[in-house]
Amino acid sequence: MAPDLLTISEYARRRGCTEGAVRKAIRSGRIMLIDGKVDPVAADAQWRANTRPRITPGARQPGEARATSPEAGVPAYEASRARQAAADAERAELDLLERRRELVSVASMERLFSKYMPAARDIALSMSARLAPVLAAETEQAKVAALIDEEVVRMLTELARIGDALEKKEL
């Protein structure tokens, strides 16, 4: 019994490719014709055997099952590529925020604070030594409050200056 032979265009439609792709496979000797027609069973086998597989998402031979990840039924290769693309996009976004100085690393902040906190502690602890003699001489509550407020503002201004200087060196 003779095999059911197809024209080149019929075989291309059945295979899901262009007629040009089938003609190229014929010219390169990857598939053979029988009296100018294509035996689809033999041609599919020849195509698989003589064509180097292409690594593209969703590319597969006719009748070939798509590999899927067991947890979601999603093609494993496509899911992997999607995760990779998402990770690349996230990295690019973080890099952009860092360049805009809208984002700093935890390590940078830890270094900054490790240098800032001793200075802050020293300024805060020296406040009582500076204020005690001045406040001891005052009898007016409003004047005492004003002196404490002035010292707190002076201390915060000095801390801000130290923080700015450290940040310029660190970041």
What does this structure look like?
The structure is a single chain. The chain is mainly alpha-helical. The chain folds into 3 domains: 8-50, no CATH class; 61-103; 106-170. It has 6 helices and no strands. It has helices at 8-15, 19-27, 40-50, 76-99, 106-136, 141-170. The protein is rod-shaped and about 120 Å long.
Low-confidence stretches: 65-69
What is the rounded distance between the termini? 81 Å
Structural class by sheet pairing and helices: mainly alpha
Q: How large is the radius of gyration? A: 38 Å
Number of helices: 6
Mean pLDDT: 82
Order of helices and strands: HHHHHH
Q: What is the 3D form?
A: rod-shaped
Helix content: 55-70%
Largest β sheet strand count, sense and barrel closure:
none
| Beta-strand fraction estimate | under 5%
Count of folded domains: 3
Number of strands: 0
Keywords:
171 residues, mainly alpha, 6 helices, rod-shaped
Outline of this structure?
The chain has 171 residues and is mainly alpha-helical. It is built from six helices and no strands.
